[in-house]
Amino acid sequence: MRINNNGNNINYIHDKAGNDTLVVMFHGLTMSSIIYPFNELAKDILKMGYDVLRFDFIGHGESYGDSKDMTLEKEIQDASFMIERFRKGYKKLILLGHSQGGLVANYLSTLFCPTKVILLAPAFNIYDCVKNKMFFGKPIKEGKDLHLWNMTFTKEYFLDISDESYYNLNPFTKVIIIHGSEDILVPISYSINLKEKYSNVSLRIIPNSDHEFIGFYDELIKEVGEALNE
C-alpha cells in the first residue's frame, strides 16, 4: 500500500495481529521492506503476536524518489510521519532498525519514547567513514557524487550524515543490539563500544554472521524474539 506524505508516496505494509504493541521496522541502505531479512522478520514477528509496520525509505523499494535524493534527515522525517500516522491506539511502541535504519531508530527514540529499541548491526561507523573521506572502501571527493551499490550518494547526503547528533545513543531507553561477529561493513567493535559506554545497552553477538545475517536467519530471529520479549 502507499500513503502520501506532502506529495511523496511511501510504500508500506501494516500487518495486524491484534496486539497493543506496534513494532516499526527501518531497513538499511540498498534494501527495502520486502527483501531479506526484513520480509522474513516481519512475518515471524507477526506470528509472535506483534503488530508490524514496515515501509520503504526515499529512493528505496517502491517509495518515491531516487537514491540521490536521500539524506538521513529525510529518512527520519518519513519515519516520523509513519509513526505519528500509525501509532494511534497502541499502548507500546518498539523500534527495530538495521544498519543505517538503526541510526534512524536510535534518533527517533528520543522523540517517541519507545518501550525499547532493537538495532541490527547499526551503522555507527558511518561518522568515521565520512570523517576519514572513505565510504565503505570508496574515496569521498569534495563536491562530487559517489556511486556505490547501484546508488548515488550526494554531497548533501555526506554533509547531513556527518552531524554528530545522529550518533549519540539515547541513554533513557532500553537498547538491544544484535550484531554478527564477522561483519565487515559495520565492524562489531562499534557495537561493543556502545555497550561499554552506555549502561542501558545490551549486546547479542551472532558468531560467524555477516552484516546481513546471511545463512544465520534462525539465529537472528531467535535473538530478535528474545529481545522483543525481554
From TrEMBL:
Quote the SUPFAM superfamilies the UniProt record gives: alpha/beta-Hydrolases (SSF53474)
Which residue numbers delimit the Serine aminopeptidase S33 domain? 20-127
- Pfam families in UniProt: Hydrolase_4
Q: Which PANTHER family match?
A: PUMMELIG, ISOFORM A, RE40534P-RELATED
What name is this protein filed under? Serine aminopeptidase S33 domain-containing protein
Organism field: Anaeroplasma bactoclasticum
Q: Could you read off the lineage of the organism from its UniProt record? A: Bacteria, Bacillati, Mycoplasmatota, Mollicutes, Anaeroplasmatales
